[in-house]
Specification:
The complex is a heterodimer of chains A (344) and B (671). Chain A is of the alpha+beta class and 344 residues long. Helices cover 40% and strands 20% of the residues of chain A. Chain A has 11 helices and 10 strands. Chain A starts with a helix and ends with a helix. By secondary structure, chain B is α+β, with helices and mostly antiparallel strands. Chain B folds into 5 domains: 2-69, Phenylalanyl-tRNA Synthetase, Chain B, domain 1 (2-Layer Sandwich), CATH 3.30.56.10; 87-284, Phenylalanyl-tRNA Synthetase, Chain B, domain 3, CATH 3.50.40.10; 293-358, Phenylalanyl-tRNA Synthetase, Chain B, domain 1, CATH 3.30.56.10; 377-565, Bira Bifunctional Protein, Domain 2 (BirA Bifunctional Protein, domain 2, 2-Layer Sandwich); 581-669, 2-Layer Sandwich (Alpha-Beta Plaits), CATH 3.30.70.380. Classes of the chains: A alpha+beta (344), B alpha+beta (671).
Chain lengths: 344, 671
């Protein structure tokens, strides 16, 4: 057979095989095509191979080379068709793998929503230049009351409004009166006093932690809760600075431009004292208390109220967290039902 | 403080709606707690802060309104005609305890007809939720709600010998009050007595047998000043809180003592007839004159951050009842009104100006200078702890710092000292400041077990309170874990935690025996000899005590030493570019040989080219290995920093390890 005839026969075979394999819709059809083209006995490739013997010797190398190339191509086409059908079978109805099966579980724990709230508030205040500080939860009356301008006659001093410790041990705390009674702090402002006692202005801190006030536990009260308080003391700090910092804080927290409203109020450690509202959509919602640090407080820590001024603000973490996450009963925060924790 | 709209119109012209009024008052410091319609009237509920006793009466609220709306304030003159004999001929008053009652005034009316109050008075009292009793008593309540000065009316027929003696109560003195309950009085309480016995607890409540009744014809009107602290203590000790004690605790206007008395007599004459004795018995100290206050005008801008015109400052202060004494370009000096006990200092005036001028005028876009903030190492370490533990599948719990005695006594790993105790329980029976977080987590575990949750993995970071004689208690930050997994699982989490804090930390594990730990399954963790934590499986007894069904493993670590030991800025170490060779060794050895001992031998024998060394598994089989025998499999990862480690070198190191383990621990290599 002349070389040219052989080559055209091979080309025809290659095309036919490719089309047959590609057309095979299932494994049976593919097997039939395989037998037709690649069958060891009567396959068409085998038959073509026989034609190789009839090629003139001079053309034999070229013919053999071409034959091998075609065989490789047909094998490859068959393999591709087989793979196509195999993968079609898998994604179709082949039964040994279900891709909808849940993945191997990776169990992550959840941070308590109060922690998440505190961390977010700390983070925002950090960006505004306020460093987080902590202090003792068991306090003397100097730090919890007197230095905060809460005189013995103030209703907040009522022993029934505070958790005093029963142990009447004589304790000489820093700045405290020896032999003074101890109590669980009723506000984190105690930390501010401790920081100011040991630092010269400027002071720019947030104090945070647990505080304790006798309240019957109900949907909106718990005798232990968390407070976060900011304090800025420097030369020329004004109430406009307070309002502006709170606006930045609220805008960072709520993620859009919010406005701040002050309503007059009364706290012994600030004067003027205000309740702070922030705009949440259409409404004004209570944010916490704030004010300019009372000159008596500045004097109590050894600052000169005519030289420095400052502001302080504080808020209850539970209430803010409850409002943001629509927790309707703050006692949920302390039940530690894992289903509750997993919601956050 | 409930306020009647109709009542307010007696003093000021209200050209606004109740809602507008409430909004104005709220922005001036009287928080609005709601408005309710009562008949034809409105009851406006206002929250009055503890410094504003002047707002505990309608006149005080009307004064605020007059300033806010710029309207005139009209007050009753309260000048009743006194046609009777001198009052001093009808009653005598003596104060034996001026520290409890600095001033006492008495007026007497004779020939009064006790009966029901007229409709207007009944309605007004109803609006502010005060029930009516009789015209005389209702008038005293009316005047209380009008000006905030509490009064008391005695039936003169029951004031023995026409004497009023104000004295301190005797310890254990018994007193039958108007509510017909008997109270046992104590020292420090103020008693109003006649010649024979107490007729009232001063400022708190009157007595049953001197109250005004239908048959009363002669009435003594008491108007006095009491020590606020003493009133508060008395009301609290006797659990006798009244509208009267509430106001006396907050220091009402001393100038209204006499006004209120005259006003009450005026109304009694009008409503009950009779005749007022001339004059007043006024015993004790007259109110001291108010000290002038100087406001430096520059302080306004310095504190508020806004400029307010001097004329406006003066207008506000004067409108609020301050009397201007001096004024120049730099300062204004005023005498505050008697009813504003809270105005004493310059800063108080700054607040008044701001409050009336309007906080809405303070800008919210001031340029606050930037400042760096610093995150403490403690904060960084706690963040790592939370990060690792949540990754390890632990949920964060928050439990109360104060627990009940049984929970407190259950375990105290850090101190033998008795816990600190609060005078009042925080929650039910919770009086003990906790010395460990673990019991609280076990309680939380029980809560979750009761809800049949299959997976309860909890941790908490909080403080424990460790008493120290003669000092403030030591508050230590702890992290505690409570898991349903076993000892090794929890130990693995702790090791990951410690490694995250500082990969170079070496922890020594020492057996720990506690009644609440399963024997042989408890350990103290030490770093450089310092105990930093404990770990163990909960004993059956402790499980029973906490009513737990499934096994639990507990752990508690001290965070403060970890903060000290933390490696917060890791340092780069050069990496060898050459491949490592791993060799697994399977030793058979006596059960008594501990991993920690074997590991020390291996480390020492392997030398510097031991890059990593890991525990693979322990295998026990009595039949094949024999009793008290085990097999330990470990993996060596060997690498040279300077060249490729050859197989021969690896074999040599491995042989050193095998030989050392054979010599030191009689360990045999298993085939």
């Amino acid at each position: 057979m002349p070389l040219a005839d052989f080559l055209s026969q091979l080309a025809e075979l290659e095309t036919a095989a490719r089309e047959a394999f590609a057309a095979a819709a299932d494994t049976h059809a593919l097997e039939a095509a395989r037998v037709e083209f690649l069958g060891a006995k009567g396959g068409r490739l085998k038959a073509a191979q026989k034609g190789l013997g009839t090629i003139p010797p001079a053309d034999k190398p070229a013919a053999g080379q071409r034959f091998n190339a075609v065989k490789t191509q047909i094998d490859a086409d068959f393999a591709a068709a087989k793979e196509r059908l195999a993968s079609a079978a898998t994604t179709g109805q082949a039964a040994d793998f279900d891709p909808t099966t849940p993945g191997t579980p990776l169990v992550l724990g959840h941070l308590h929503p109060i922690t998440q709230t505190i961390e977010e508030l700390k983070d925002i205040m950090g960006r505004l230049g306020f460093s987080a500080t902590e202090g003792p939860e068991i306090e003397d009356e100097w730090h919890n009351f007197e230095a905060l301008n809460i005189p013995a006659s103030h209703p907040a001093r009522d022993p029934l409004e505070n958790f005093y410790l029963a142990t009447a041990e004589s304790v000489a705390g820093a700045g405290g009166t020896p032999g003074a009674p101890l109590l669980l702090r009723s506000q984190t402002s105690t930390v501010q006093i401790r920081v100011m006692e040991n630092t010269r202005p400027p002071v720019r801190i947030v104090s945070l932690g647990r505080v304790y006030r006798p309240d019957t536990a109900d949907a909106t009260h718990y005798p232990m809760f968390h407070q976060i308080e900011g304090l800025l003391i420097d030369r020329r700090v004004t109430m406009a600075d307070l309002k502006s910092v709170l606006r930045l804080f609220a805008t960072s927290y709520l993620g859009r431009d919010v406005h701040i409203r002050f309503r007059p109020s009364f706290f012994p450690f600030t004067e003027p004292s205000v309740e702070v509202d922030m705009q949440w959509g259409e409404h004004w919602i209570e944010f916490g208390g704030a004010g300019m640090v009372d000159p008596n407080v500045l004097s109590a820590v050894g600052y000169n109220p005519d030289e420095v001024s400052g502001f302080a603000f504080g808020l209850g973490v539970e209430r803010l967290c409850a409002r943001r996450h629509h927790v309707t009963d703050i006692r949920e925060f302390y039940k530690n039902d894992v289903r509750f924790l997993h919601q956050f | 403080m409930l306020v009647s709209w109709d009542w307010l119109t007696d003093y000021v012209k209200l050209g606004v709606t109740p809602a507008e009024l409430a909004a104005r008052l709220m922005m001036a410091g009287l928080n609005h707690d709601g408005t309710a319609q009562v008949g034809d009237d409105w009851a406006i509920n206002l929250e009055v802060t503890s410094n504003r006793a002047d707002c505990l009466g309608h006149i005080g609220i009307a004064r605020e309104i007059a300033v806010l709306l710029g309207v005139e304030l009209k007050l009753p003159a309260a000048n009743p005609p006194a046609k009777g004999p001198p009052v001093s001929s009808l009653v005598s008053v003596r104060i034996d305890c001026p520290e409890l009652c600095p001033r006492y005034t008495a007026r007497v009316l004779r020939g009064v007809k006790v009966g029901p109050s007229p409709a207007w008075l009944v309605r007004r009292l109803a609006t502010v939720c005060i029930g009516t009793i009789s015209n005389v008593v209702d008038v005293t309540n009316y005047v209380l709600m009008e000006c905030g000065q509490p009064l008391h009316a005695f039936d003169m027929a029951h004031v023995r010998e026409r004497k009023i003696i104000v004295r301190e109560a005797a310890a254990g003195e018994k007193f039958l009050a108007i509510d017909h309950k008997e109270y046992q009085l104590e020292r420090g309480m103020c008693v109003i007595a006649d010649a024979q016995r107490a007729v009232a607890i001063g400022g708190v409540m009157g007595g049953a047998d001197s109250e005004v009744t239908a048959g009363t014809t002669e009435v003594l009107i008491e108007s006095a000043a009491f020590n606020p602290m003493s009133i508060r203590n008395t009301a609290r000790r006797l659990v006798l809180h009244s509208a009267s004690s509430y106001r006396f605790e907050r220091s009402p206007d001393p100038e209204s003592v006499d006004w209120a008395s005259r006003r009450a007599c005026e109304l009694i004459l009008e409503l009950c007839g009779g005749e007022l004795a001339a004059g007043v018995v006024d015993v004790g100290t007259q109110p001291a004159a108010r000290k002038p206050i100087k406001l430096r005008l520059a302080q306004i801008e310095r504190i508020l951050g806004i400029r307010i015109d001097a004329a406006e400052v003066r207008r506000i202060l004067t409108a609020l009842g301050n009397r201007e004494l001096k004024f120049d370009a730099a300062a204004v000096e005023v005498t505050p009104p008697s009813w504003r006990r809270d105005l004493e200092r310059e800063i108080d005036l700054v607040e008044e100006v701001a409050r009336i001028y309007g906080y809405d005028k303070i800008p919210e876009d001031a340029q606050v200078p930037m400042a760096p903030s610093h995150r403490s190492n403690a904060d960084r370490v706690v963040a790592k702890v939370r990060h690792v533990l949540t990754a390890a599948g632990f949920d964060e719990a928050l439990t109360a710092s104060v627990v009940d005695p049984a929970t407190s006594e259950a375990m105290s790993p850090w101190t033998d000292a008795a816990p600190l105790v609060t005078q009042m329980p925080l929650l039910r029976e919770a009086t003990h400041l906790r010395r460990s977080l673990i019991p609280s987590l076990l309680v939380a575990r029980r809560t979750n077990e009761h809800l049949a949750h299959p997976r309860i993995e909890l941790f908490e970071t909080a403080r424990v309170y460790l008493p120290q004689p003669g000092q403030l208690p030591r508050e230590e930050n702890m992290v505690a874990l409570c898991s349903g997994r076993d000892y090794l699982a929890v130990k693995g989490a702790i090791e990951a935690l410690l490694s995250a804090i500082n990969p170079g930390l070496t922890v020594d594990v020492v057996d720990r025996k506690e009644s609440w730990l399963e024997p042989g399954r408890g350990a103290t963790l030490l770093i450089d000899g310092e105990p930093i934590g404990l770990l163990g499986e909960l004993s059956a007894a402790a499980k029973r005590q906490f009513q737990l069904r499934s096994p639990a493993t507990i752990a508690e670590l001290r965070l403060d030493p970890l903060v000290r030991l933390a490696l917060l800025v890791p340092q780069y170490a050069p990496l060898s570019p050459y491949p490592a060779i791993e060799r697994d060794l399977n030793f058979e050895l006596a059960e008594a040989v501990r991993w920690s001992d074997l590991a020390a031998t291996v480390r020492q024998a392997a030398g510097d080219n031991l890059e990593q060394f890991t525990y693979v598994e322990t295998y026990r089989d009595k039949e094949r290995l024999g009793a008290d025998r085990k097999s330990l499999m470990l993996r060596l990862s060997l690498r040279r920093p300077d060249a490729t480690l050859t197989s021969a070198e690896a074999d040599a190191i491995t042989k050193q390890v095998i030989d050392a383990c054979a010599t030191v621990h009689a360990a045999r290599l298993r085939a």
